[in-house]
């Protein structure tokens, strides 16, 4: 695991070429190919938790899911890192590591919830405050007012603020760095890797928006999860250009 003192070992200021995206995708595919069932389980777990919370808890289930699902995703990130580094999944160890960094986990959960707040702001401006309140409370009668294009736009709007968490989350969870440093380095790496990251985010945004019209697009969306992990590994421990 990368320690805090390793943060000074940042890569050079040279911009990342677009072909780095293929390296990240290739690494993600090899991981999935080696452990398809376990990786599929890790990819599906946050989505399942979100669905269960939103459907089983009236009024506050949606808001609660926006705080708890990021925590589940952090646990999955820890297990993914364990598999890559040590060759095994260890949920118990992942939970212990999450508890040990509970302050940072709370910070990241609140930042992740901020993405949902941004989406609610989009709904408020695009439709009306009642629609935003209905979306926040999970009122299906209100949500049913959205047509598919509006829902696709609202979901896609969350991709922009999510960039603030792209490197921040793994940097804090795996790199063990404070929030301010993680945010600073996130902006630095986003600037340095704007070419491959633009391509990745364009594909991701298209899949998120397109899943409203074609739900099967959720499958490739789930499989792209490790790409962000490999981008972070590339930022921390850069490899020669392909």
List keywords for this structure.
single chain; 242 residues; 14 helices
What's the SSE blueprint?
Elements: H1 20-34, H2 36-56, H3 61-86, H4 91-100, H5 102-126, H6 129-137, H7 140-143, H8 148-157, H9 159-162, H10 168-173, H11 179-192, H12 194-210, H13 218-223, H14 225-236
Helix pairs in contact: 1-2, 1-14, 2-3, 3-4, 3-5, 5-6, 8-12
Tell me about this structure.
The protein is mostly helical and 242 residues long. It is 74% helix and 0% strand. It is built from 14 helices and no strands. Helix 8 packs antiparallel against helix 12.
Along the chain, the helix and strand elements come as HHHHHHHHHHHHHH
Assembly type = single chain
- Beginning-to-end CA distance, first to last residue: 25 Å
Q: How would a crystallographer describe the biggest sheet?
A: none
Characterize this entry briefly.
This protein has helices at residues 20-34, 36-56, 61-86, 91-100, 102-126, 129-137, 140-143, 148-157, 159-162, 168-173, 179-192, 194-210, 218-223, 225-236.
């Amino acid at each position: 695991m990368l320690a805090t003192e390793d943060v000074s070992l940042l890569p050079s200021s040279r911009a990342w070429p677009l072909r780095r995206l293929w390296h990240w995708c290739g690494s993600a595919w090899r991981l999935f190919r080696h452990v398809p069932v376990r990786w599929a389980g890790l990819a599906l777990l946050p989505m399942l938790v979100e669905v269960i919370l939103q459907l089983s808890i009236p009024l506050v289930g949606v808001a609660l899911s926006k705080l708890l699902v990021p925590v589940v995703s952090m646990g999955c990130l820890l297990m993914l890192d364990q598999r890559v580094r040590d060759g095994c999944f260890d949920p118990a160890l992942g939970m212990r590591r999450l508890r040990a960094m509970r302050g940072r986990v709370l910070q990241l959960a609140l930042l992740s919830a901020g993405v949902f707040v941004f989406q609610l702001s989009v709904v408020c401006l695009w439709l009306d405050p009642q629609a935003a309140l209905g979306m926040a409370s999970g009122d299906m009668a209100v949500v049913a007012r959205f047509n598919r294009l509006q829902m696709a736009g609202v979901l896609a709007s969350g991709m922009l603020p999510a960039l603030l968490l792209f490197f921040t989350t793994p940097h804090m969870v795996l790199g063990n760095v404070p929030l301010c440093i993680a945010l600073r380095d996130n902006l630095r790496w986003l600037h340095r890797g704007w070419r491959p990251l633009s391509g990745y985010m364009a594909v991701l945004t298209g899949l998120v928006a397109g899943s409203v019209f074609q739900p099967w697009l959720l499958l490739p969306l789930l499989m792209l999860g490790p790409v962000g992990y490999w981008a972070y590994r590339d930022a921390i421990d850069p490899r020669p250009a392909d």
